[in-house]
Amino acid sequence: MISNWSTAAGRTYRAVRSTPAPMTYGLMALCCLVFVLGPASGLTPAYGSGDALLAAQRAYFRRWGVVPADLFDGPAREVLTPATALFVHGGWVHLLGNMLFLFVFGAMTEERMGAVEFTLFYGGCGYLALLGYAAANATSEQSLVGASGAISAVLGAFLFLFPRARVTSLLPFLFFLPLRFPAWVVLPFWVSLQWLAAGRATQGPGVAYLAHLVGFSLGFGYAWVRYGRTARVKAAPAPASEGENQP
Q1: What is the 3-state secondary structure (H, E, C) of the chain?
Q2: Which residues are the active-site residues?
Q3: Regarding predicted confidence, which is higher, 46 or 236?
Q4: pLDDT value of position 192
Q5: What's the pLDDT score for residue 74?
Q6: Residues 206, 151, 163, 210: is their CA dihedral positive or negative?
Q7: Higher pLDDT, 186 or 162
Q8: What's the pLDDT tens digit per position in 210-226?
Q9: How confident is the model over 70-118, as pLDDT tens digits?
């Protein structure tokens, strides 16, 4: 059994290393592994079931997620939570939505930046996005988890680097027909939805739309400063699906 797991892990590692975007797939794998092993997946018997499972989930999110009130008025270790929260997700839909966006937009962005720069960019922008959201809700006791701030930064960088890349979007008001639009149409539309939603979110943390906006702005700004207007790439079409609900 151990030998089988070792063989599978070796094959996965070699497959990831052979791709032009190893960190994108590595981050996806890490997020999925953390989720499956944690209480939110409901797949680990050690966390129990029913009320015990719910209690374990609350404790888990508070331990590894960002709690704004603790971040600014708690123990020093809380400063690490915007980093750990990037790998914690609240449910299957939350995880799969984020991983879909990372899969679609991350690979091309990583190829353009390189693995090391992309990793630092992803982690740094994700940390600052969650920190910015926490600062705007500094008295909140609710936990904030998810990679959406970092992935929103990837979207921002993608828009600057590949504005003409065509992405597939599923629009609900058109009966979810898959339609292909340039990134400069799809991504600003997505940002507009986040802006409108953030303006209506008055009851404290839940879906961190503000973290999405902060991350997207950081990603676009970084690409603008780092690569300049003359460094944009005419990219090949890239598939994507529109829609994300949680940070």
Answers
A1: CHHHHHHHHHHHHHHHHHCCCHHHHHHHHHHHHHHHHCHHHCCCHHHCCHHHHHHHHHHHHHHHCECHHHHHHCCHHHHHHHHHHHHCCCCHHHHHHHHHHHHHHHHHHHHHHCHHHHHHHHHHHHHHHHHHHHHHCCCCCCCECCCHHHHHHHHHHHHHHCCCCEEEEEEHHHCCEEEEEEHHHHHHHHHHHHHHHHHHCCCCCCCCHHHHHHHHHHHHHHHHHHHCHHHCCCCCCCCCCCCCCCC
A2: 148, 212
A3: 46
A4: 77
A5: 75
A6: positive
A7: 162
A8: 899 999 999 999 999 99
A9: 998 878 889 999 999 999 999 999 999 899 999 989 999 999 999 999 9
From CA 107, how far away is CA 38, in angstroms rounded?
26
Cross-strand pairs, 168: 180
Only one residue has tokens 């190893």, namely 22
Residue type, 142: Q
For the chain, the residue count is 247
The reported pTM is 0.80
Type of residue at 169: S
